[in-house]
Amino acid sequence: MLRKRRCYAALRAALVAGCERSGFRVCHYSVLATHIHLVVEAENRESLSHGMQGLVIRMARQLNKALGRSGRVFADRYFARALKTPREVRNAIAYVYNNEQRHRFGKGAGWREIAYDRFSSASTFDGWRVAAATRHIETGPPAVARAQSWLLRVGWRRHGLLVPAYVPQWGNRW
After folding, report:
1. pLDDT tens digits, the chain, 174 residues: what are they?
2. Burial of 127 (0-12, 13-18, 19+ CB in 10 A)
3. pTM across the whole model
4. Which of 42, 43, 115, 124 could bond 134 through an S-S bridge, CB–CB 3.0 to 4.6 Å?
5. Helix (H, G, I), strand (E, B), or coil: what is residue 76?
6. Which domains does the chain have, with CATH numbers?
7. What is the largest CA-CA distance in the chain?
């Protein structure tokens, strides 16, 4: 449902409004059918908590407005995982941008046939090793903030730029 044009527009509007707020930044995102993946930076736990709280409220209000309804939108809390190494950050970014492709095409799909996910900030990401088959370019104000931490700006690149279809498995390798 979230990947419908009307819902995605509402979520993107909420991200534009809330992607950078006092110590909290959304640096990468992907909207899937039933949930959203984010890579965020926060100065501390309190900034993360307040930033996510504000973002979830913005998203819920925008979705309710777009769908002409009211009430609770998100049933679950967010899941946070602190990323500490360049490899963890690289794998998290790849997971966020390419996870939907794994669900759609399976693990054996070749990257040459795969396009950037238009329901993500992948088209604004400058860390791709190759150009994808098609490139949807986002228009309008940015829905992500520029990363401030060394890990998210530069560190992850030590392990190589990303291929549009590489999806690391969630687990101990992060």
Report:
1. 899 999 999 999 999 999 999 899 999 999 999 899 999 999 999 999 999 999 999 999 999 999 999 988 887 778 899 999 999 999 999 999 888 776 665 555 554 555 678 899 988 898 988 765 556 667 789 999 999 999 999 999 999 998 877 776 655 444
2. middle
3. 0.87
4. 115
5. coil
6. 5-159 (3.30.70)
7. 46
